[in-house]
Model the fold of this input.
Amino acid sequence: MANWQQILALDAKYNAYRAPNNPPFRTLYIKRRSQLLRESASDPEKDQSARKDYIHTRARLLATKYGSPAFSDQGSIKSRSFSFGGRSISKSTIESMEPKMGEARKFHRRQRSSGSVKFNLDGPMKRIYDSIEVVPTKEAEASRAMGGDKTVSENYAFAGMHHIFDQHTDAVTSVKFANDDKSRVACSSVDGTLSVCQVIPPPATVICMLKGHTEAVSDFAWSLSNDIILSVSFDGTARLWNVASGECIRVIKDITGAELHSCLFHPLNNNMFVTGNSKCFVQIINLSTGKGYKGGSCKITGQALSLAFDPTGVNLWVGDDKGSLSAFKVDLAHGKLIRTRRVSVCEGHAVTSICARAWVSREAREPSLLVNCAINSLCLFRISSDGSLQLKKRFSIRQKFSRIRSTFCPLMSFRQGACVISGSEDMCVHFFDIGKEKKACVNKLLGHSAPVLDVCFNCDESLLASCDAQGMVIIWKREGKQGVL
Done:
């Protein structure tokens, strides 16, 4: 890791102690500090050993001035529903899903004996997958020519901060770039608002604030055409926003009056979206009417914290606070949910994020799920032809209390290797190479002074957004455009 990043991380840890009643000053300080450190790092005459001595000296000075920073596992997340009470970490159900000799067959038999319905990825289902995303050959010469011969760690090296946003007064729960868009990013916050920002061309600016929710905004989603944003809140409502005008065009109350935790547009029909609430219900809603479909509501084992469709929109996965993944088939014509399977992946610990891919890379050409579990784990599962899950990789992050999210890198399929990224309670953004058996973490970004809750790339991976539990959003820039499509 570059020395300047280590120094910036050290300053970020103590940033909350600087001018505690003046948040804009703290943001300005980190921005300027990042700029000066990058300029200093580019000076070839600087002695590297002197930089290391500087880190140790500065750490001692900051500790003397401010004392040792008392960072809790929960960071500064104020809302009880964005963190989970401390539980003793017992042997996880995930371990029983490791691909050891004979374990996969036992696991599949257990699922069949429970009377669950299998996913059918053959026949018409397979043709849909193939039509949506072309699976590369092992050689993939054209992909290699476009992606270049750089390693994963070289592809995901960063030059520093492009911009820092601090328009929110409490934890930023989610951050997402618009679909196929390099420049616009939106954020949701515990302060009850959303914001839409323009990051390029400079100067970066907040385009509009979306105000209307009376409690924390827990999740949101861009429509496919980026003209509408769907948001859900602990106030028990889903709201639809006109991005161009910033106006709320529809308010839809939850059928049970419960807090809403998650939302998602259907990938093929944006007139249909899904919500998940704290009373364990998942519901499909018609955007035009604001009403649910008959047969489009199902109850699961716990609070519906996370949602993910496969690219076909046929299969829906729901993660809950009890550690289970529930799978449903979606009848697109009638808006019905058909329960197919429930898998316990981290019993007793929340599943806070799910991300689905039809294929990950030319080396891993099968449907996959990326799952955050509140047992210090980021897990990559392979979806078998019968719909069962097999654990392929487990990466270590810090997550016990916070609702951490992760994602696949959008262009990884066209490069040598593949990468996933995740937030973490250790205040870092983690990059993992899924092809490496050992030392899979190929990069860490330091600069946040609170748990990193969500991460998102723009469409060409030139910029990365990360948000934290103190309300800061950092836009990171890549070192260069080599190897970026």
